[in-house]
Amino acid sequence: MLHRLSIGGGISSQTSTEWTTNPGRPLGNGKYDSSNLRVGGYTLINLMARYRLAKWIDVAGNITNLTDKTYVRQAGFYDGMIFGEPRTFSFTIRGHY
């Protein structure tokens, strides 16, 4: 039975990043703060498992961002920040012939 099971995972890491702001963040009165934005680093852990039910059908489950790490994946225009995905679960049933 275990020969039908596949498990896996991955770790990805990003060091801190610095974004250039051009022309900068408006401060009012026509002035701008043109200092760079610094975003901290992060590490993500992902897991997967797949089981072959029959010769033609598999079921699989995935967990991304296992530790539910809050992280910024992009920063930029007027201090705008785009956050990365929170912990996510997915389940798949796949048939093949």
UniProtKB/TrEMBL annotation:
Main location group: membrane
- List every stretch annotated Disordered: 1-32
Q: Where is the composition biased (Polar residues)?
A: 14-23
Keywords of the record, alphabetical order, are: Cell outer membrane, Membrane, Transmembrane, Transmembrane beta strand, Transport
The membrane-topology field of this record reads: Multi-pass membrane protein
Where in or outside the cell?
Cell outer membrane
Organism superkingdom:
Bacteria
Q: Which PANTHER family match?
A: FERRICHROME IRON RECEPTOR-RELATED, HYDROXAMATE SIDEROPHORE RECEPTOR FHUE
By sequence similarity, the record places it as follows: Belongs to the TonB-dependent receptor family.
Which named protein is this?
TonB-dependent receptor-like beta-barrel domain-containing protein
Q: Which organism is it from?
A: Gluconobacter kondonii
